[in-house]
Specification:
The complex is a heterodimer of chains A (158) and B (178). Chain A is an all-alpha fold and 158 residues long. In chain A, 72% of the residues lie in helices and 0% in strands. Chain A has one domain: Four Helix Bundle (Hemerythrin (Met), subunit A) (Up-down Bundle). Chain A contains eight helices and no strands. Chain A starts with a helix and ends with a helix. Chain B has a five-stranded mixed beta sheet with strand order 4-3-2-1-5, sandwiched between helices. In chain B, a hairpin with a 4-residue loop joins strand 3 (128-133) and strand 4 (138-144). The longest helix of chain B has 16 residues, at 63-78. Classes of the chains: A mainly alpha (158), B alpha+beta (178). The A-B interface holds A 24, 26, 33-34, 37-38, 40-41, 43-45, 73, 81, 84, 87, 110-111, 113-115, 117-118, 120-121, 124, 133-137, 146-147, 150-151, 153-154 and B 12-14, 62, 64-65, 68, 72-73, 76, 112-113, 115-116, 124-125, 140-141, 143-144, 146-151, 154-155, 159-161.
């Protein structure tokens, strides 16, 4: 088992015991709480990273104009949400965690998938240049495709 | 001398990420909060305590924004599965209001993409966050945040990629000393 995981389980159990007493790690020890959060991110990185090729294939389809923005959002959400569900289960399943091996190669991966997730939210498929949405971060199809194209090499590096 | 960039390096937001760990120069005018990896550009500089910006006064009047948000998040965040109509939009708004106004909900003063000051409303141990523009108290979004987003919110209150110019590249390309 990775050292990360040992520490994660220790902190998770500590947080649980504090919660039984009506408090939490966040309230009692911010430094340790931030470590717990950081280990959660690493678990999440690993789970999403295992689907790296699915993310890349989907992004490529969009960048190569094989699917439109609306289709990309729908398919990305499906993939992202199913990984998020897997993360949610893994994070609290001590039995599974005890036999889990994190690959350090995956660390940082969800910075990019989180960014796509946010960009999906900023994409307006009905963006009208003559009457743009009253939201400075709103993206039309081209902006959105460029944003995904910019992230593509970052994900490819993993 | 100001260290603000004089050369636009790139249009893409994800460039120049490789070596931005140089410390800022020993210069009183240097504002590291304007650069990637620096502190929040708004904390201690923006008035988050505007008395008109109460939780109850959050502005949900932007119909297009609300409709867009409904389509993307009503089901995921609140289990509202019905098609969007006036009644369901009201239900969606009420769910967000109730969340913001709940006594358990904390307000995190921060930013959206380091570009706009923002309030993020969040309950401890939940991943649901409501983001509001702190300049006008207008609703921006509701989402189930990822662990990465939750960590960043906890550290410096920002949601979204840090697309500020890279410190090292900026230093490399600045004008020669005069």
């Amino acid at each position: 088992m990775n050292d990360f995981l040992k520490l994660y389980i220790e902190l998770l159990e500590y947080d649980r015991s504090l919660k039984k007493d009506g408090t939490s790690l966040r309230e009692q020890d911010r430094e340790k709480y931030l470590k717990l959060l950081n280990y959660s991110v690493k678990l999440s990185d690993h789970v999403h990273w295992q689907q790296k090729n699915d993310y890349l294939n989907l992004m490529k389809s969009f960048v190569d104009l094989k699917i439109d923005g609306k289709q990309f959002v729908s398919q990305f959400n499906k993939l992202h949400e199913s990984n998020q569900e897997a993360v949610k289960i893994l994070k609290t399943d001590l039995k599974q965690l005890n036999t889990f091996e994190l690959n350090p190669k995956s660390f940082g991966f969800t910075e990019w998938t989180s960014e796509i997730d946010l960009a999906c939210d900023e994409f307006y498929h009905d963006f009208d240049e003559k009457d743009p949405p009253d939201f400075p971060f709103a993206k039309n199809e081209e902006d959105f495709r460029n944003a995904v194209a910019d992230i593509f090499p970052q994900i490819q590096k993993y | 001398m100001s260290c603000k960039p004089r050369v636009k390096l790139a249009d893409g937001p994800f460039q120049g990420d490789e070596d931005n760990n140089q410390p800022p120069p020993e210069n009183g005018n240097f504002d590291e909060s304007q650069y990637k990896g620096g502190s929040s550009p708004f904390i201690d500089k923006f008035d988050y305590d505007n008395l008109n910006h109460t939780r109850e006064n959050t502005d949900f009047s932007n119909k297009r924004r609300m409709s867009h948000s409904y389509d993307g998040h009503a089901e995921k965040c609140f289990g509202i599965q019905e098609n969007r109509n006036k009644e369901n939009l009201q239900k969606f708004e009420k769910n967000i209001r109730d969340y913001i106004e709940s006594p358990e909900t904390e307000r995190i003063n921060g930013s959206y993409r380091y570009e706009t000051p923002a309030y993020h409303y969040k309950k401890p141990d939940e991943d649901l966050i409501v983001t509001v523009n702190a300049t006008n108290n207008e609703y921006i979004s509701v989402r189930n945040a990822t662990d990465f987003q939750l960590e960043k919110l906890e550290i410096d209150g920002n949601l979204g990629y840090d697309s500020r110019p890279s410190m090292s590249l900026t230093l490399r390309f600045r004008s020669p000393k005069q």
